[in-house]
Every structure is written in C-alpha cells, then in structure tokens.
Amino acid sequence: MINNFLINYPVLSAIFICFISISIYQLAANLQQKWLSIWLNPMLITILILVPVLVLLDINYQQYSQATYVLNMMLEPAIVALGYPLYQQFRQIRFHWREIISILALGVVVVISISFFMAIILIKAPEIAIALSLKSVTTPIGITLTDQLTGDSSITAFAIMLAGLFGGLLGPTWLNFIGVTSSKAQGLAVGSASHVIGTAVLVRISAEHGAYSSVALIISALLTALISPWLVPLLQQVLI
C-alpha cells in the first residue's frame, strides 16, 4: 500500500515523508527546550522514533533517501554556516595553529591505533577494525577511506553516527567532570572526536567553543585522510 503510494505519487510521498521527519525533529527540539535534558537531543530522539515508523510503513532506506533529497540539500549550507564562529575567532586561532595541528595529529594517531587494537582484540575481524578506527571523521571521508582500506563502510557510517551523537550528548559534561573546562580544549576535543554533530552542540555553548570545534573538525578530517592510508596497513602488519 505505502510502496504503491511512493511509486505512483513521488511528489506527494516526498512531502509526506519530509513532513514526518521535520515534525518528529521539531517535537524533540521542543521537548529538549522544555526539559533541558542532554538525553533529549533532537537528532537522537528523531532516529529512535523515525526508524520504527519507517519499518512500520515498510519504507526502506533508498526510498527515504530519495524522498528527503531536498532536506539533504538544505543541510549543506547549514553545515557551512558552522564556519561562522570560526571566522569570528580567526584572529585568536591563527596564533596557535602549530600547537593545534600538533595536538590533533597526535590525537588522530592515538584514536586510530587504540580503536584498531581494541577491535582486533575483542572482535578479531580486520574489516571491522578498519571501520571502527575511522569513526571520528565526517561520513563522506570515513566511508571513502574505509572502502580504500578494504573495511566495512556500513559499520563506519554507523560508528560515525554514534561517535557524533554521544560526543554531542556527553562530551562537554564529561570534560567538565574531569576538569577540562577551557573552551579551547573542549572545542578541539569534541570537534575532533564528534565532527559535525558535536560542533553543532558546542556552537550553542559559545562562539569560542564552536570556532575551535570547527577547526578540529576540518583539520582532523584532513589529517585522518593523510595518516590513515599508511597507519592502518602498518597496524595490520603488526597486530594481525
């Protein structure tokens, strides 16, 4: 029934699916604004509600992706807008670019190495270890690198989503708990580990948080693209 509607009325079905997606997200955003709980993150709540709804309506991922193509197009300028806090804080950031690149490069090496090592020890599947080791970059880069390194890109996409959600939910709280209260340090930590989702959360805290998170997001992605093609094969030789 639903599939026939999607096929016969593509425009109406796209409007219907977009309406459901936006409505669920707006409901979650209103709940978070009312209750001020980190667990009411709109993206997390939307996923938890939307997936069962799509299963109930028998709408697969390809159909949903095609129907929400317009929403995906609108997300691109929204992501670019995250660079505005970076512009605001650019004068301050440029004086520390050597330290920032050094810290983020070390972080990339450590994260890839630890993730790969733990996956090999616990799961003992190289393709999954590769996928999990590339979880802290944006989805297009992570999936491309995973495919090049013969990993499982579907697991990479899921791991990237989880890293973004939990980093955005718990990152600032955890950093405050362990005594890391500097806005610069929090921005670099969350931006490098939780990419766009974490950055979107930090922008709401302060412009400085968002600026440093944007820097970490961009530089970490570039460093991962440069480092992982030689680091992952090296880890495979040593650990497998």
Describe the structure.
The chain is about 85% helix and about 0% strand. The N and C termini lie far apart (about 50 Å). The protein has helices spanning about 1-10, 10-35, 40-55, 60-65, 70-80, 85-90, 90-95, 95-120, 125-135, 140-150, 155-175, 185-205, 205-240. It contains 13 helices and no strands. With about 240 residues, it is mostly helical. The protein has 2 domains: about 1-80, no CATH class; about 90-240, no CATH class.
Topology (SSEs and partners):
Blueprint: H1 2-8, H2 10-35, H3 42-56, H4 61-67, H5 69-80, H6 83-88, H7 90-94, H8 97-122, H9 126-133, H10 139-148, H11 153-177, H12 183-203, H13 207-239
Short note summarizing the structure:
The protein has helices at 2-8, 10-35, 42-56, 61-67, 69-80, 83-88, 90-94, 97-122, 126-133, 139-148, 153-177, 183-203, 207-239.
Poorly predicted sequence stretches spanning 5 or more consecutive residues: none
Shape: globular
Mean pLDDT: 83
**Number of helical elements:** 13
Protein name: LrgB family protein
Membrane topology: Multi-pass membrane protein
Subcellular location: Membrane
Keywords: Membrane, Transmembrane, Transmembrane helix
Question: Characteristics of this structure?
Answer:
globular; LrgB family protein; mainly alpha; 2 domains; 240 residues
